[in-house]
Specification:
38 strands, disordered N terminus, 5 domains, globular, six-stranded antiparallel β-sheet, mainly beta
């Protein structure tokens, strides 16, 4: 069985020591495991299991894994700053020495396990995740797999726009619809800040999938979602208790920022007032977390929205991290969001950092990274800030011009385009007036063209030169001929005709023979043909189709022809003769011939812009009621008229509700002279 070793005789740069801290998020392992991780010599191996959709199971061990091929990559933030609500999928790649039929592996599950030898000689197993196969490529002897965790299951169209409930209700709905288990219970969610608040989805939103819903729910809870090692959906939050310490000798390489990332404010855009509501701590000298236009934070009174945002800010205020980038031998018990402390060298042991991305290579290094923005740039607008300001500033408060609205689209997951049409863009919109709109799109694609076999016949002439004839003597001629053991000369032995180039007579007793021609004495030219075969990169033809309200637009269908590599295309189409107050949908499809085209997450951007695209006013949580009561007549006997009351209102995000209040009958009033008021 193949094992990995960290030998005590290797250089100190290969040594690593991890210290356990209570209250951390490390995957729960035994004390013996933590002790074994600290040893100078570490013995370990990896195993795995493949389970097909039909229930077939294939076990593989360390000997089946091609050295240097396996990795697990995960993240909870982008490459620049801390984010809330993120729903990133973890990626796994591995190459196996296996003869498994690749066509049976579509959506198959791959489980990986890390085994570490303990002091008593036994091995402790740590699960490293469950992944679904997205690609299976067969070579002569190997099987190359690429897989992602269950987060991609949430890339399923969401249509529950009249949903109302708590955060647990939303998460439960998503998990049930996408067949993913929940790692936390209802009580766990209700114990979180904002966990018991009743939420609803604002009508005008950019929600397309259940993954988008999770993103906004994660923001409300002040954390991020990920798929844990058991394949369950888990909400995690940032903390301030380190789970381990890494000294200089514990890491191969490391780099640290010269600033501390911290947050003292949050900003949330109110679509009714078209302003960014700002909430902060005192002193407000840190970064601002921009929540953007969260459709779950649009309803309710101002006080309600303020409380929701302040709860998010309180959770976020624990962030006090130094951004870093480091390579270590790794601890397989580490998870995203874990807080660590660096000591020695250029590190400041009084500061902490959080893991926002990690890559674990099977039998190799463990790369850890923590991102963050510089608070000194707090007064500079972020990209999201500029996008929101730009969106809101485009609204022209003018009756003649109408209102400029933008509906945007960004792909939340990657996809592959082949010979069948794949929907890459889908935008719904509704104008308030009969106007025109414009569609803009930008798509960055990775092109993988099929190899083409080319052949030609090479034709040409070959020149055969003349052969020079050396001077030789006939048999019996005096000269420096060597005599063989049998008494014959070398000339006799090989039967060579002797030529006397001088044309004279030999002094030998035997007369010389007449000169003879040996070989080719003239140049010759021959015509030859040679077949030549080679392979070269082909071309992929990508065809784009526009669809408006279920009708294909035949008049304009862009097309591009590309070789393998990264390419981009700009798309545009004017949408005319729109009907007022009618919901429209604009789709873009793509298909490819001659190869495949891939679009990574976030590489497909699109928008529809036009006048009078805004939504109606949103309810701010305040209900105004006017009550009118008929005058009471005073006759001989004072009597009160019957009072009936009917109240009807409409809440934008839900349904029409009706409330009624009836006071039946009449009641008498005793005799007196003073006025009566009701």
């Amino acid at each position: 069985m193949y094992m990995g070793y960290l030998d005590r005789h290797q250089s100190l740069s290969w040594l690593v020591l991890f210290l356990w801290k209570e209250g951390g998020l490390l995957y729960p392992v035994s004390e013996a495991f933590l002790q074994a991780v600290q040893e100078n010599t570490r013995r370990y191996y990896w195993t795995g299991r493949i389970t097909t959709t039909k229930g077939a199971t294939y076990e593989f061990g360390a000997d089946d894994i091609v050295k240097g091929s396996g990795y697990i990559s995960s993240q909870c933030c982008g490459s620049a700053e801390i984010e809330l609500g993120t729903v990133y999928a973890a990626e796994m790649g591995i190459t196996l020495l296996s003869d498994i039929d690749r066509y049976t592996l579509e959506d198959a599950l791959v489980e990986l396990f890390y085994h570490l030898r303990l002091s008593d000689g036994s091995f402790e197993e740590v699960p490293m995740g469950i992944f679904e196969v997205s690609e299976a490529n067969r070579n002569i002897k190997t099987l190359e797999l690429k897989a992602y965790d269950f987060m991609l299951r949430f890339d399923k169209s969401f249509n529950g726009f009249e949903t109302i409930g708590t955060v647990y209700d939303f998460v439960s709905l998503c998990c049930k619809a996408c067949k993913v288990e929940m790692a936390q219970s209802q009580a766990d969610y209700e114990a979180m800040p904002n966990g018991t608040e009743l939420l609803s989805i604002y009508t005008e939103n950019d929600i397309e999938t259940y993954r988008d819903v999770l993103y906004y729910v994660g923001q409300v809870l002040g954390g991020f979602f990920c798929i844990n090692r058991e394949g369950k959906l888990e909400l995690r939050k940032y903390g301030n208790e380190p789970v381990m310490e890494l000294e200089t000798k514990h890491r191969f390489t490391s780099s640290f920022s010269d600033f501390i990332t911290r947050y003292t404010a949050v900003s949330s855009t109110n679509m009714k007032t078209e302003t960014a509501e700002y909430y902060h701590l005192d002193p407000d000298d840190g970064l601002t977390m921009n929540l953007g236009v969260n459709p779950l934070l649009q309803f309710g009174l101002k006080e309600t929205r303020e409380q929701l945002c302040m709860n998010i800010l309180n959770d976020l205020s624990v962030v006090d991290y130094v951004p870093f980038d480091s390579e270590t031998t790794g601890n397989p018990a580490l998870d995203l969001g874990d807080v660590i402390r660096f000591k020695g060298g250029q590190a400041d042991e009084n500061r902490i950092s959080a893991i926002t991305s990690m890559q674990c290579k099977i039998g190799g290094k463990h790369t850890l990274k923590g991102v963050g923005k510089n608070p000194r740039l707090a007064h500079a607008k972020s990209k999201n800030d500029k996008n929101i300001s730009g969106l809101l500033n485009q609204i022209i408060d003018n009756k003649e011009a109408g209102r400029i609205g933008i509906h945007t689209f960004t792909n939340a997951s990657s996809f592959t385009v082949g010979e069948s049409d794949v929907k890459i863009i889908s935008i719904e919109f509704a104008p308030n007036e009969a106007v025109m709109a414009q569609f803009f799109g930008s798509v960055i694609v990775g092109v993988n063209a099929d190899q083409m076999e080319r052949s030609v016949v090479a034709r040409g002439d070959v020149l055969i030169p003349s052969v020079e004839v050396e001077e030789v003597l006939a048999e019996g001629t005096a000269g420096n001929e060597e005599t063989t053991d049998s008494g014959t000369t070398d000339s006799d032995a090989v039967g060579i005709d002797v030529v006397d180039e001088t044309g004279g007579s030999s002094d030998s007793a035997v007369a010389a023979e007449e000169p003879k021609v040996i070989g080719n004495t003239k140049e010759q030219t021959l015509s030859v043909e040679l077949p030549v075969v080679w392979k070269e990169d082909g071309q992929v033809v990508v065809h784009f189709t526009f669809e408006f309200n279920d009708s294909i637009i035949e008049i304009h269908q862009p097309e591009e022809t590309w070789h393998s590599g990264k390419h981009s295309i700009m798309l545009y189409y004017p949408i005319e003769n729109l009907v007022a107050n009618y919901r429209n949908i604009f789709n873009v499809y793509a298909r490819a011939t001659g190869g495949t085209v891939t679009v990574d997450t976030g590489d497909c951007l699109a928008a529809i812009m036009g006048q009078s695209m805004g939504a109606g006013e949103a309810w701010d949580g305040e209900i105004k009621i006017e009550d009118t009561i008929k005058k009471a007549k005073i006759g001989g006997v004072l009597q009160m008229a019957a009072v009936d009351e009917n109240i009807t209102w409409k809440i934008d995000e839900l349904v029409k509700r009706t409330y009624s209040d009836v006071v039946p009958g009449r009641f008498g009033i005793g005799a007196f002279a003073m006025p009566v008021e009701r």
